[in-house]
Amino acid sequence: MRSLPPKPILSRVKTRHLELLVALGQHGSLRRAALALGIEQPAATKLLRGLEKVVGRPLFVRSPRGLKSNGFGDVMMWHARVVSEALDRAQREMDRLAEGGPQRVRVGAVHSAAPFLIARAIARLKRDQPLIVVEVSIDTSNNLLPLLLSDDLDVLVARPWEIGPETGVAYEALIDERLVVVGRAGHPLAGQDGLILRDVIDRPFALLPRDSPMRRVLAPLFRETGVEAPADLVETASIMTIVALLSESDTVAVLPEDVARFYEDQGTLVRLSPALPAVMGAYGIITRHGIPASTGAEHFLLAIRAVLRALGEDAALIRS
Questions:
Q1: For residues 61, 66, 68 and 69, what is the CA-based torsion angle, rounded to 10 degrees?
Q2: Global pTM value
Q3: Percentage helix, strand, coil, to 5, in the chain?
Q4: Which tens digit of pLDDT belongs to each residue from 206-243?
Q5: Furthest C-alpha separation in the chain
Q6: Domain(s) of CATH 3.40.190.10: residues in the chain
Q7: Which CATH superfamily is domain 179-271 in?
């Protein structure tokens, strides 16, 4: 007679089991985990043994020095944290709806994605879901990633500069990005063919801060001209400040091509060179690995992908 297949863990694991696993991951000992849950240590021990019986495997190695999770325990603690955070997020969303508040999505994006991709995605989202409130933070990738990891943002459209296997994020590449030198409309160098970086290095420059991903890319190009950076330099993380400065002077700047194109179309800036040999690399969608997206974030991601499909070949999509 064939034995019945085991019941799924979901039907047998209790909420208290998940709470204990999360507490063990946070506090590192059964005593401190029990204290955090407001129960006695023997009760926590019994709860843990019951969980191990449910999953059919030992999750921790016992020793006189205490508990140490094994591979199975690491897996269960990670997934318990994911489930706990998802339920907390669901509670916050329901509380907001119950109070009459709207659904919300918190988006972080690099400067170059704002005029090209983010604005179009938001316009599409608002057309389909007008009551979702969108919060947008524009900054460099290295400044945005900590906000995602601390759950202060739902999704990033940024570069994977700071992403390693231990970071705990998922990355989906979208668009390659080039850099160009720009100046104001009517700039003295406008219309001169064949300009390269060496031809403008002695001009006043406005650039993103030295710790930004763009400056890392530009550093070897500047060194090829014999300098570490332009001598006459303004540094700011604000693209708007750079554009305003360029409009008031003969200062030049290096900007992502999509940003430059946006201001060219407005008649504000002109391109002073072809694309530089260095590329910024792809930017794409970054989310926390294994953490389900909020309802608002799901709608936003659908909107981004719809925009990219509509752009097709013109978007220079990265294809596998």
A1: 70
A2: 0.61
A3: 45, 20, 35
A4: 999 988 888 888 999 899 888 888 999 999 988 999 99
A5: 89
A6: 102-176+281-315, 179-271
A7: Periplasmic binding protein-like II (3.40.190.10)
